[in-house]
Write a structure and sequence with these properties.
By secondary structure, the chain is of the alpha/beta class. Helices cover 17% and strands 42% of the residues. It has a single domain, classed as Cytidine Deaminase, domain 2. An eight-stranded mixed beta sheet has the order 7-6-5-4-2-3-1-8.
């Protein structure tokens, strides 16, 4: 299982990392899943806590026509401690990101799985296609 970020999604995350270095940022990952790969096409910033409420999640999922494939977060405490994930996060992508002055955008993707309790299982990032100049 891995994650592919579109150039647009990567750019928006880089911009948010610069803009929100001190306060952190959260939002939705929009795209689709094919086989074992998550394709993140774009992001949508939100100001919810760890996750939106159940009611808000389903309303947002309707607005985005079922294209919510996960959530992103920056900052030290990206995800709730102790596996306190709402049921709608099952099998969704959780992407932690931060800006590092030397490394640039640092991405840490994981998928929410359930086996007696919720847990994050790390997944790989797919290689980005080289851009022509």
């Amino acid at each position: 299982m891995d994650v592919y970020l579109s150039e647009e999604a990567r750019q928006h995350l880089q911009a948010q990392a610069l803009e929100s270095a001190r306060r952190g940022a959260r939002g939705l990952l929009l795209g689709h899943r094919r086989g074992g790969r998550f394709f993140v096409e774009r992001i949508y910033p939100c100001s919810f806590g760890d996750f939106p409420s159940d009611r808000d999640y389903w309303a947002l999922d309707g607005i985005f026509e079922g294209k919510i494939i996960g959530f992103y977060s920056s900052g030290r405490r990206a995800w709730p401690a102790g596996g306190k994930f709402p049921p709608f996060t099952f099998n969704k992508l959780c992407l932690k990101f931060d800006a590092d002055p030397k490394k640039g955008l640092v991405l840490s993707p994981a998928v929410v799985e359930y086996s007696g309790s919720f847990k994050l299982v790390p997944v790989a990032l797919a290689a980005q296609a080289k851009r022509k100049r």
